[in-house]
Structure formats: C-alpha cells, structure tokens
Batch of 3 targets.
Target 1
Amino acid sequence: MTFVSRRTLLKSAAVFGAYGAGLAVMPRLSQAFASTDPVEIEALSGDVLLDGKQATRGVMRYALAGQTSTDPSPPILRTKRGEAFKARLTNRLDEPTTIHWHGIRLPNTQDGVPFVTQPYVYTGDRFDYAFSPPDAGTFWYHPHCNTLTQMGRGLAGVLVVEDDRDPVFDGEVVLNLRDFRLGGDGQFIEQFKPRDAAKTGTFGTLRTANWQPEPRYDVPAGGLVRVRILAADVTRIYNLRLNGAEAQIIAIDGHPVPERLALDMAVVSPGQRLDLAVRVADSEGMEMVLEDVRPSTPKVVARLRAVGSSLKRNLGDLGPLSENAGVDADLSNATEIPLLLSATAETAARDSICGTLGYSFWAINKVPYPGDTPDPTAPIAELKLGRTYLLNVENVTPHAHPIHLHGMNFKAVSSNKREVQPLVSDTYLVLPDEKVQLALVADNPGDWVFHCHIIEHQKTGMTGYFRVT
Ligand code: C2O
Ligand code: CU
C-alpha cells in the first residue's frame, strides 16, 4: 500500500500554501516537518555551478536526504515555535562536522560545539538533534568544526521558526547572503590571508544570495512581502538598502523590534538576520533592488520584481509579529563581567584537529582561545543560573567585531558610541573603540561559547565560553 506521508504534504504546504492566496515566491526547496519525523540532513561535498561559468569543485553543502532539487543551495528548514524539531545529520564529508543552531535557545547538548557540547560527528556517522525552539523568527544553522573551511565552502542555511499568530503576508523571500572565495578559474583559492585575518578578515570574490549572483524573485504587485535576510558570510558586514519600494524593519536577529522603523540603511554583520516587511510596487514589472552600499560603490544583492495586478496592500495594515520572551534582566542586581576584545601577540595556535588556522591574532580578556581541543581552556566566567549579568564589552581594536553568544539572548543597555535600542539579540556588532553593556539572564545551564562571528577572528583567538550552573 502506498500513501502520501505527512512530510510530503507539509512540504508542499510550505512551498505553495503557507501564504494564503499569495504567490509562491520561494521556488526553492523548503520543508516543514511533522513533530515525530526527523529531517534528514546530509553534509556533503561536490561540484556546484556558482559563478555561472564553470563548476566549482569541493563545494560543501547541506542537502535533505533524497533531495532531487536542481537548486544546490542549503535547504530552508521550517518549524514552529514550541514544537519538537528533530534533525538527523549524516556526515558525508571526509572530515568531522557538527551543526550549531545559531540564535536558538536550546539544551546545551544540542548546541553543536565539538568538545564543548558534543563529540565530533565523524565521516559516515550520524547525530540526532532535537529541541523545541522557544522563540519564533529567522534563525540559522551552520557547522562549528573546521568552521572557516566548512562555512567558507558553503555550509550555512536558514532555519525559520514560525508562529501561527504572525500576520499573513502575500509572499516571502528568504535571502542567504554570502561570498565564495574563488579564483578566475572558478575554483576555491586559499580561504584566508594571515595579514587580513589580523585585520578585517579576508573577503570572498563572488557575492551571492542563495548561492546565485544577483538573483531576482517575483513578488505580488502591491503586496506585503516578508523578506528574511541572513548574513551567512564569514567576513562581510553588509550595509543594506532597498530601492524602489517602501520597507520596514520588523525583526532583527529573529526578534521583533519594539517599534518598526522605515528601512533607510541597515547594518547586518556576520551571523545577524534582518526581517523586512516590503510593500511591493504597484505596477507589474517594476523592480526593487536590494543593495549593499559598504564600503562605497553599491553592489546589487538581489532584485524583487512585481508581478500581477496590484493587491493594493498597506504597510499600516500589518499586525504585530507574535512576541518572543525577551530578556528580563534585573539591572539593580546585576554582576558585571569585563570582556576586553583585543589583538594579541602573534603566536602559533595550538594544534587542533578541528581546524586551527595556525595563528593567534585576537584575544578575549587577553586570553587567545587555543582552538577546539579535547582539553578546552577555563571558562571566561562562571555564571549562576537565574542571575542577571552585565557583559561590559570593550573593543580596543581598530576593527568591528560581531560578537555572538550561544544559548541565551542578551539586550544592549548602553554604549559610549551610540544610542542603543534595547534589542534582544544573540549577536552585537561592537565598533572600534566601543564600550557596550549587554544585559543577560543566565537562564540556560551549560557551557556556552562566546565568539566573534568573523570566522577568522573566531579561529585565531577571539573565542571563549561561559559556564552556567
Ligand atoms: Cu553562528 Cu558559534 O556561531
Ligand atoms: Cu572579530
């Protein structure tokens, strides 16, 4: 007897039915999952056409088991707030890997950091991840092992956590932004230069969204479209603007903003997400262009094209996103933790099978993290479960660092450089010479990694972890 599995049904619902009568604007592989059914994810390596001219060898990608899509870019995973999400990773690379679920507050054992929260997943082995995401929004997943190579060669995908109470959009576009570092022959060149790793990080050569240079997506004319943007690049900080349509920022790093702001220009650094509500232009064929204006000459990131007759929707009609838990910090009773981000004397990092770059350039509190070893260094600090902490992060380097905390959210409280919004987040871009206070409730027990998300900085010392007990 044959029958259509629940998963198949959900899969088509996710692609074609999730936005009511709206257009299916994401032709790409997308899947929602029944709670009992693990999503089967393979990490594998192979040839992919990236630059439109010649296949690039040794691209690392995530694929759903049995994926027949002609689109090799990473599957967009979808689940619902509070529902059990299960993913079975099968490692078909010829090196160990893991999956980290960036921005998700989950049990420590599911966090995907080798030697800190789990053993390696070796070639041919599997690992079952399971958690129930407490927050809805745009999150993502990527390896935490030999990270510069594995992410640089492609591994990083979007994880959307939905909430049925969210307003209904007429369409949705998910943009996974990243560069590939290729030579003129379309093949990978060395992933980093030590001189650049000691500065801003080494930039890729081919800019992509969803692994395509300047892709274009059709969206319903006059409609309201949710655009979920992920900066999955290992180095690049984006300054994004959208020409040709009205847009509002509705969420940052997965969390709804307290007040929507018109999108003028938004800074999105490695690891961060930006959710926009876009009011599509009314006339069929009109193009809206998402551009990166950093450092100077604007570069096209992606285009949206209005199709059909205008739905005549209004941004003002859009109801609020369902709320996330927030950070309930008791600032009158907070313990301060100094966190100095600095350059360090250039020494060779200790050997690490999980991908040392062979150098240390950076440090947190003067300690350059020695790399992922079976014998990690002491935690930066030990936190008591349930207490409030103020992370006093001070950047004494001339470079910006998108600093990221696993397992818990924080909220910016004050900065010497700018007016900060009390945004709930997992990643904060610390500017040169900035001192910022991040408030945090230590509500999740375990060892939680804290690192710069410019992966060369992470892998050359700017890493540590907190122990919450
Ligand atoms: Cu997005 Cu430690 O990672
Ligand atoms: Cu950094």
Note: Confidence is low (pLDDT under 50) at residues 1-31.
Target 2
Amino acid sequence: MDTAKFIARQVEEIKQTAGSGKTISALSGGVDSSVCTMLAARALGHKLKSIFIDDGLMREDEPKDVQKAFAALGVKVEIIDAKSEFFAALKGKLDPERKRKAFRNMFYSVFGRAVKKSGARFLIQGTIKADIIETKGGVKTQHNILEQIGIDPQKSYGFKLIEPLRELFKPDVRAVGRALGLPEKICQRMPFPGPGLACRVVGEVTPERVAIVRKATRIVEEELAVLKPFQAFAVLMNDQGTGVEKGKRKFGNIIIVRSVESQDALTAEPSPASWDVLRNVTQRILKEIPVVTRVAYEVTPKPPATIEYV
Ligand code: XMP
C-alpha cells in the first residue's frame, strides 16, 4: 500500500465530509483509533475535538497515559468519566451478546451527548476491515459496527460516522501510523477490543471482577512481552477453583492466560510459550492477586475459538 497517497486522500476526504463544523474523534488509545485521530487532526486541526471515554474497562493507567501521549503530539484529549454508567448498564448481564449490546448503546449514548454538547455533526472512529467482515459474517456484533446491523447513527445517536480506516487491515493501519509520526510504542501496540476488559470477564462485569482481570492483564503483558505476540491477555472465568492456603481449603478465581499469533485477527494460533515464561506468569499472578487460586494457559486456535472470550 502507498501510505503517503492513502494519507493524502483520507485527509482530503475528511476535510470535504466534515466541512467547517466541529467533529469529534473517538479515541481509545488503541492503534486504530490513534491512527484515525492523527489523520483527523491533520485534516481538521483545532476543529477536531478528541474524546476518550473512561468506561472503567481499560487497562491500568490507560486514560492518563493516552492523554499524555497525545499531548506530546500536540493533540488535546478530553477524558469523560462514565465508569458508573457503564457498570450500571452491564449489571446482571451474563450473555456475551447482551453485554456487547449494552456496551455499544452506552458507548454511543455518551458520544451522542458529547457531540450534541459541542455542536458537532460527525463522529470519526477507527473501524477497520476485519471489524466489518466479522460482524457481517456473524462472528460477533462488534461494538463499533452500526450500519451493518441496521442502526442509523444519525437517528439513534444524533451524528454521522466517518471511518477512514474501513478498507485497511491491521498491518496497513500500523504502517499509516508510522507515516503519520505516531510513536513506535503506539504503532506496535497489541490490539485491544473496544469493550475493553469486558471482553475478558466471563459472566457478570462488575468493578471488583474487572479489577482482578486488570491486574492479571498487566502481569501477562509484562511476562509475555518476550514472545512478541500479536495479542496476549488475561481472562477471568465465571467459575471458581479450590485452592489451599496455610493448610486450609479456599475457593478462588480462575485466570486464563491467552496469547495468540495472527496477521489480521481473522484466524489465530496459540503462541508457543516456553515453560519458564508460563511458570513466571503463573507465579506472579498467584502471588500478586491472592483471590486467584488457579491459572491455565489456553491453546485453542481461531477457529474454532475466537481470540477474546466474550
Ligand atoms: P475475536 O475475539 O472475535 O477478535 O476473535 C478478533 C479481534 O477483534 C478484537 N475485538 C474487538 N475489537 N470491538 C473492537 O474494537 C469489539 O467489540 C471487539 N471484539 C473483539 C479482538 O481483540 C481481536 O483482535
């Protein structure tokens, strides 16, 4: 792909579509939304307002880290604290698609409010080709896909969508990010799903359960970094496992460590991990998160499994 040409074309298209009004960029700190925000900032300058929704489902320190990284690039990011609204929407929901739907509705309602308040007409977001293919194919109703599942964003939430990356797969998105001057740390980031840690909590998503998987996620990312995986993360199961502490039985949580190799996320293979890596990650999770009694490494490819659990 000719990245320079792609950037020039998209910058022109964004300018044409958005016109002289305000546009909101939905930034999550992942590669796709970061690249999309940089493209939009190049096209619209101060007419772009970049918003990060703190939904309580992000990795440790994510909102502040993203704000700092973009400040260094000259892009001001506003953080909207919507943690309690998201947890209220997810309360009592166990079914994966019901959780996705609740997340999606809350996500676009919060953006709808921000768009209305700022007088903007457009929301620009980093949907990529794999997102569209999988939603159309029925694998899942990905949170950022609306038109393909019959939702008109204008009618439902009060804005039109601009999606400059919809024809690209992940490797091309990373290449565009590099050409736009995004730091390598952001371009190389592992994919992180829009609904965040909610995709990694089997069963009910509560602040307490998210806190467990958030701690485990940091440990997995640190310990598995040596594998340079496409994606590595922790999952909290809905069941419990018996453990023993100071000679007494105790019932605790079960964490799955998942690491996969992939090009486009449409298919994936489990990462071959050495015994040392598996032992270290297990020991750290058990020591640093005492409510966990069991850790297992997942070896299922996609298909038949998906990459995320929810
Ligand atoms: P699955 O689990 O379907 O995931 O094999 C394929 C890729 O998509 C990411 N993913 C999502 N990304 N919103 C997103 O922005 C979502 O709802 C979503 N669900 C999955 C996942 O992390 C993997 O890279």
Note: Strands lie at 23-26, 48-54, 77-81, 122-124, 160-162, 231-245, 248-261, 269-270, 292-297.
Target 3
Amino acid sequence: MARVTISVIKADIGSLAGHHIVPDQLLEVARTSLAEAKRKRDIVDFYVTAVGDDLQLIMTHKKGENSQDIHGLSWEIFKKATKVAKELGLYGAGQDLLSDAFSGNLRGMGPGFAEIEIEERPAEPFVVFMADKTEPGAFNLPMFKIFADPFNTAGLVISPRLHEGFIFEILDVHEGKVVELSSPEEMYDILALIGTPGRYIVRRVYTKGEKEVAAAVSTTKLSLIAGKYVGKDDPVAIVRAQSKFPALGEILEPFAMSHLVAGWMRGSHHGPLMPVSLTDARPSRFDGPPRVVGLGFNVKNGKLIGPSDLLSDVSFDRARAIANEIADYLRRHGPFMPHRLGPDEMEYTTLPEVLKKLQDRFKEVET
Ligand code: F6R
Ligand code: MG
Ligand code: MG
C-alpha cells in the first residue's frame, strides 16, 4: 500500500465585488500552475476551487505533511494569483500573504492548511470541508458530533470498528499548546474545552489502537499571527470516511443543523453556518451568512476521483431554510450582542476611541 499526503491549502488573495467570490481568472492561475506541477511529478493530482473569497488548492503528493516543496509551490501560486488580482483591481489583493518571502513553511505566513499523510486503503473515501466567514473553531461542534456523539454517529454504538471511540487533539491557540483527550472516557473534559471555539480548537482526530489520522482541521489564526486583524481565518478540514471511520452520512449529518459561529460581517458577528453547494458558496447577505461546502473524493494511488458536491443535496434544504430564519432573527439585533461578538473578539471596534472621547464626561455615581 502506498503512502500519500492530502493537502488542502487556501488563501484569500483577492475577490470580486468585495469580500464575495474568487473570479475564474484566479482559479485559472492555480489550475495552470498545478497542472504544470503534476506534469513535473511534483504533485500526483489536484483539484482547484473556491468558497466565497478563498482560493482552495486540494493536492495529493508523496512529500508528507509540512513539505517545503508543497508549501512553497502553494505560496508561489498565491503570489502569482495576487499579481493577477492586482491587475484586475480585485478587492483585498494579496491580503492573506503576510510576509514578503517564503521561509520553508506556510505556518505563520497567512494561508490556512489542513494536511494528512495516510496509508491509502484499497478504497479511500474522504471529505474536504471548506468554510467562509468563520473561524477554525466552527468545526469543533461538527467534529465532536462526528467522532464522539452517539446520537449523531450510529457507528459509535453499533459498529464494532468504531465502538472504542476516538482521540481528539485540541489546540489552545492562546498558549500554542496541544492536548490529546480520549472519547468517550474524557468526553466531558473535551466539551469543557471545545465549547470555547475561539480558543480551543479540535485540530486532529485519531483512531485508537493504531492511532491512524481520521481528521485534520486548519488552525491558522490570522489575527493572532499578525498581532492585529488582517483577514479571516476561514477554515478547511479533511475527514476520512467509511469502515473504521464514520460513514459518509455520519460525517455530513452535523451540517443538517446550522449551529452559530463567529465571523460574520467584519469578523465581528455570530451567524448560522449554512451548508451550501459550490454554486451557492457566494456569501452576500450582510457578507454572509457564514457557509460551508463539503466535497467528497476517493483517492487511488494518489489520484483524485470526484468530487461530489455533498451539501448540495436536497436533504440539506431544510437546514438552509432554518439558517435563513436564524439569520433574519439575529440580524434584527443589529449592533447588540450576542449577534455582535463580545468586545475582545471583534475584528473591528471603535470602543477605545469612543471611551477616550467620552472619558471626561463619565461622572461618578452611587450604584
Ligand atoms: C471578510 C469579511 C467582510 C469584511 C467587510 C469589511 O471576509 O468578513 O465582512 O470584514 O466586508 O471589509 P473592509 O474593511 O475590507 O471594507
Ligand atoms: Mg475576506
Ligand atoms: Mg473568506
């Protein structure tokens, strides 16, 4: 059996009509470059797409995770596409490229990525999730449901291959530390952490026993990297399906409920994470609402078969309708929390200036 690495690397390097969609001209730059890399056998296969204003490079190769070659190739593509974005006068051209020079790895450079190196099974189905107008912690709730919730994943209860449960690797983005916790034994500890998705993020999930990787989530926090807000950290995730992993339908089931996530309008509002097709991955209303696309693939000898646009299915229509209702309801709160994020989480704020301006007008009172 062959070892293969699946890399999903994304960046917002410019978009059409505002923070909206990636135009075809940028997708073409990426496709041409990756076709060339495939011809030179630097990668085995690729699929290029976009979700909202994020350009997505899905690649298979033999170079392992965190490969300088693959990260360097992606960086060059984002730079080339930025050049075209600038020529076209696109909005936010190059916004996620935070450094002038590539230094061997994309970590801390701006683009987001999720990668898994696997021993390819005879049939290797997997799903790539890509979300826009939200943060990596948006995947906490679905990852918990997929790998730990018996009311979501029937296999945890009735399949001998899943019955043992899974191991969660959780990142504390403030401390830059990870902890591994075992489900179901430490389920309440897992929830105690990941219920705060702005700080604790499910980064990887493993099987027990052989500790095979089952899922990976991008954990780039652009705001923390740059020390200030420079763009969204819209996340991507890879989840392996079937057999000793959850069934495809168990992986998709959490997205039938649009849970509330942070990141809508100006990265400063909560909104429902709406499951959509690639065609509908064009955030518009109030720059959103936040949305997620799921593409299903098989990989064989490194070659990508597919994709199927999974969340386009009619069975998610009701989730979309409910998400639109939630969006209506939340929008009526205008600038009030909890629609608007708390003061420490907002990516735009005027509060320090307002307080400064008013400092002499605040009077002491008995309370
Ligand atoms: C970007 C996003 C948008 C922007 C908003 C303001 O992905 O979430 O909601 O924050 O459109 O953007 P600027 O300040 O660039 O005009
Ligand atoms: Mg954007
Ligand atoms: Mg985006």
Note: Residues 16 and 23 are 6 Å apart (CA to CA).
